[in-house]
């Protein structure tokens, strides 16, 4: 376990934002691709200024969103006839890996349950075949699969909430299954904001579930933050670190920690379960050319890490 935790900054593919994150201080960048990459990905070398690739160390690349705002989830991508958007993400990651001379992690969400993962035989076979192709074609690229929240909701679109299954043990079981075939090139990405929202919403659901026993719940239904750290132990490649307020959606998502104790508790769990992976601060800003929330969160985290070392 490292004495100094590496801290990355999430940044979109825009020079001004990257410069600001560099000023804030970070050990590397996680590029958050936007929907424009869906159009430019096949020729990204020509479409984006070369300085964007060389401004600061790139460590991870997050798959983009569709134009509707929908996340490109693992199970959705591999059911599409055209998987070129993900292929372009892998190719970009390989390009950055060769430039910076180290491996790059491609980050992608999944809301797939383990039950469905095992039942959807055709999807699983296609996913295996394509991942074999991607890993062979892009040897310096790994895959990190991220946990999601138990419900997706786009209120402005007038849609009903979509409940998600792959929120906890589902993800880690899927990752472990994939690691049997692809080894350490597949790992998990633990998003603590998503974990905290899962704990909030499912604790209410479980309290209302009369069919469950009143005795302490089994580990499979334990959605506390510590259980997330415990079950991702040994397979986690990256932690996304931020908080949420209110319902966790829109401007309530990806906020700084409200209390220093929150940062200290997360660092305590990081140390307790012997994590050695880096942290990406995913922090929402009013102005991404003046990242006051990122600076605030980074300071809280550094103080928490310092306190943990002294104890």
Please provide a written account of the structure.
The protein is α/β, with parallel strands linked by helices. It is built from 13 helices and 12 strands. The protein has an 8-stranded parallel beta barrel, surrounded by 6 helices. Strands 6-7 form a two-stranded antiparallel sheet. A two-stranded antiparallel ribbon has the order 10-11. A hairpin with an 8-residue loop joins strand 10 and strand 11 (253-255). Helix 12 (260-272) crosses helix 13 (292-310). The model has no long low-confidence stretch (mean pLDDT 90).
Concise description?
This protein is of the alpha/beta class. It has helices at residues 15-24, 37-40, 44-47, 51-54, 74-77, 84-100, 114-119, 121-137, 169-182, 192-207, 225-232, 260-272, 292-310; strands at residues 7-11, 28-32, 58-62, 104-109, 141-146, 151-152, 162-163, 186-191, 236-241, 243-244, 253-255, 279-281.
